[in-house]
Design a protein that fits this description.
Two copies of one chain form a homodimer. Chain A is an alpha+beta fold. The first copy, chain A, folds into four domains: 4-90, Uridine Diphospho-n-acetylenolpyruvylglucosamine Reductase, domain 2; 97-215, Uridine Diphospho-n-acetylenolpyruvylglucosamine Reductase, domain 3 (2-Layer Sandwich); 217-334, Alpha-Beta Plaits (2-Layer Sandwich); 340-428, Alpha-Beta Plaits, CATH 3.30.70. Chain A contains 14 helices and 17 strands. In chain A, helix 8 crosses helix 10 and helix 11 (354-368) runs antiparallel to helix 12 (403-416). Chain A starts with 7 loop residues before the first helix and ends in a 15-residue tail after the last helix. Chains A and B meet through strand 8, helix 6, strand 10, helix 7 and helix 14 of A and strand 8, helix 6, strand 10, helix 7 and helix 14 of B.
Chain lengths: 469, 469
Amino acid sequence: MTPVTMIEGALRDALPAAAFRDLEPRYLEEPRGRYKGEGGFLIAPASTEEVSQAVKIAYEAGVPVVPYGGGTGLVGGQIAGEGVQPLILSLERMNKVRGVYPEENVLVAEAGCILQDLHGVADGVDRLFPLSIAAKGSARIGGNLATNAGGLNVLRYGNARDLCLGLEVVMPNGDIWNGLTRLRKDNTGYDLRNLMIGSEGSLGVITAAALKLFPKPAHEGTALFVVPSPEAALGLLAMTRAHVGEQISAFEIMHRQGWDFLAETMPQVRLPYAEPPEWCVLCDIGLGRGLDPAEALEALFAEAFEADLVTDGLIAQSEQQRIDLWNIRENIPEANRLIGSVSSHDISVPLSLIPEFIRRGNAAMAEIGDMRVNAFGHLGDGNLHYNIFPAQGKSRDDYEDKRSAVKKGVHDLVYELGGSVSAEHGIGRLKVKDLEVYGDPVKLASLRAIKQALDPKGIMNPGAVLAAS
Amino acid sequence: MTPVTMIEGALRDALPAAAFRDLEPRYLEEPRGRYKGEGGFLIAPASTEEVSQAVKIAYEAGVPVVPYGGGTGLVGGQIAGEGVQPLILSLERMNKVRGVYPEENVLVAEAGCILQDLHGVADGVDRLFPLSIAAKGSARIGGNLATNAGGLNVLRYGNARDLCLGLEVVMPNGDIWNGLTRLRKDNTGYDLRNLMIGSEGSLGVITAAALKLFPKPAHEGTALFVVPSPEAALGLLAMTRAHVGEQISAFEIMHRQGWDFLAETMPQVRLPYAEPPEWCVLCDIGLGRGLDPAEALEALFAEAFEADLVTDGLIAQSEQQRIDLWNIRENIPEANRLIGSVSSHDISVPLSLIPEFIRRGNAAMAEIGDMRVNAFGHLGDGNLHYNIFPAQGKSRDDYEDKRSAVKKGVHDLVYELGGSVSAEHGIGRLKVKDLEVYGDPVKLASLRAIKQALDPKGIMNPGAVLAAS
């Protein structure tokens, strides 16, 4: 591919001076440190028109374009491949909220808006924008959509895909698709919106989106339930549904390994049990008027205790207690990072097979070597973060020779159970090979045909999702 | 294109005798009588493998394939174009439920299952499958997905797209894509599922789907609210949301024209007011445990009355009263049919612009001629059925010369307001030109490129969605 140096002059002619920024190291790094960019040329356009002009120039010359949001992706989708000198197209200056329509429950925002800022905008009109991920303070909505982000509230509100009504996209040839509709229903042709969502910048650059807002639940409640097993956790989920229907906002499972990691690396995080429970569930419910969530959670606890689905539990009695309980869950990824994993997995299986996955996965890992397993995550979605760590006193470097066996063990099991090796993080560059090995071949052939049809020169984020051709 | 007669022999060799059925007239007709097929060859395979074999044979020979579900589509997507002798591929024998997973809230069904039968299957495990359309007694789920059907409960549960987790599809070359996952989260590559949903059989044949089930609301309530205007109806929607959050299952607006048509054509339908209200709203709510919907609706009525958003109303006190109220709404399409429209429109606009659309649309129609307008439908989704009828004593034939002006008047206004000329019925063959005129040109170019990429010979339902090439 043509290196970006060939079009720097044309870009400087076409865009205002403010669009050019220094290529600081952060644009070439990603959170897990597995990919490192080898340079490129950074622009930060301020408008869709400027994005379009820049992409047109790259398209004409055949220069690769890597769209860059908040840089928080966990699969290397934001870092160009080896030897590639791309145009790095940061959306950071496209951070305007174009419109708020509380009477329609709609917000129209540019791609560079920080996720947490959008929470604030929604809050300002007494609405909820429910997409919530650990990186919400720096992740940008364009990247959230490009990767179809998941997070804590998928169970109730869906993933990023489900929260988007319309998109504005600069296509690989620089044309602007104006699909920024605020419509709830629109059956006019193939679903280009959902094709762009989750394409990880490899089919175009998302520049703006119309997003769904929701009424805020009148009353929210949080409980930590100690459960005897993952099976019991599933039983508790079904019972919770019977009690409050779809009004479960989050249903997260945690293994004691995560608590042990917290105690080891982040002693400032308050843990409510001296002896951490083997398994527990953190459950949020949000109810409408006329109902008291603490009462609802108490009734649930009583019935679940009777049915041997829970053995102990805590119902938050104040906002501070809710925060403390969520602090446990939300700090587990950081504790994991501090310990340093041998291999991390973002998997999903059909919900009812979660206990089997954990049982067989743990057995397979034990056969490979002496390792610690931290399984936690979005049980309500059938989505676990299944992360493998060195034994106490050892480091990840001691396991270099085991990493591929670990990955294969996990992925083979996921595949056998009809699951996904990337539930919410996407393919990026990290899992391109996995998609080739585990993906349905007919699907793969279709994806390649679509990529070729929409991006015939292969300039959009080459090597992400599909191997560069 | 090659006529199907060229491959009849090969099909007879490849498929069992039971796959061949007489081409009864119903396969060549559609509900509104605007399209009439000119023949073809009918097969009704019993398995995905048989569908695959048949499509492979058609693909090799370049014979057009028209997938056929329940035949209830309203835009002619199920009827081949002029002069085309297609392979008509009915899914009617693929009507098995492959699995029910109440603990996962999932149902896996073949494409030929009748929608209403799936309601029964869900009910049998105390769950809800919420997709509900007027034609539910004969529509098949494969067709519902191929057209991304909407209906009454989109406001709460989403359209067909939102209710589908996985698909099995026979691609245009006969290959089988096994995407029949029961996963809630799967970010492995582009969203082929949503590309197939809503493609109206022009990118492949859906043979099975994994569908989402929901907990049944513990208590359901129905009210008919008389509102002074469409603006007030929107205010009432917002107030209802503030009262019960997302637990509004349906929110339908009706104009008195529909009631007058009912009185004229279907006097057996019970109407609760001697003098029909100018505008009214039919609202369903479904609440969880511990709440009484009648009480909730009474509290809503009191507050709305105080705010001048409603002037009168009825809260159903029994299941029979609920049925009677819904009978009004559900019989309006049949009454419309009996009157005979000049032109029917399935439009959506941003929710807050519905009143403006009605005001300006009615004014535009009055300028064209003396006509009756029946505006009704899914207000909660911003989706109206805006249908234009002859003046009393005249027939639709008297308006032949006005039809195109009516269509243009409605569509221009929809376009100006950022709406859609096909909110839920799809493009089919009826609206191919409209898509060309009103569709975003960059989107259109992308759709054509996708069609060409996945169906290079153009055999799948040629002329549906996009003009045949």
